[in-house]
Amino acid sequence: MVVKLSDKESAVELELTQRVKAAGGFCTKVRALGHRGYFDRIVVLPGGRIIFAELKRPRGGRMTEHQRQYRDSYRALGAAVALIKNSADIDLLLKM
User: Fold this and answer.
1) Span 9-95: which CATH code?
2) pTM, full prediction
3) How far apart are CA 4 and CA 33, in angstroms?
C-alpha cells in the first residue's frame, strides 16, 4: 500500500502499522489521558529501536503547539521522534 496525497491520516496509520509488523516490530497506539497532543504511536523495531511517531494526513497536516513541545522535549532527551505523513516518511522511520 502506498499513501497518496489525497489519503487521510487513517491511510497513513494503516500503512505504518502494516509495514512495522512486516519488519518484525510493534506499532502501538497511544492514548495518554490528560496529555493533550501526545504522540499517536510508539514504534518498537528489532534491535531495540524505539520511535515516538506523530501521524498527519499527507496534504495540509500540521502539528499543534502541544505536539511540537512533546517532539522538542523528547528529542532533547535523546529519544527518536518521527512525523509521518506519507510512504517516504515510513521508509525513513524504518531506517532509524
Assistant:
1) 3.40.1350.10
2) 0.91
3) 31
User: What is the Cα–Cα distance from 58 to 13, expressed in whole angstroms?
Assistant: 11
All structural domains of the chain with their residue ranges: 9-95
* Cell of residue 70, nine digits: 512533546
DSSP 55-79: E--TTT----HHHHHHHHHHHHTT-
Neighbours of 60 (CB within 10 A): 8
13 within 8 A of 7, measured Cβ to Cβ:
no
* Span 60-96, pLDDT tens digits: 889 999 999 999 999 999 999 999 999 999 999 999 9
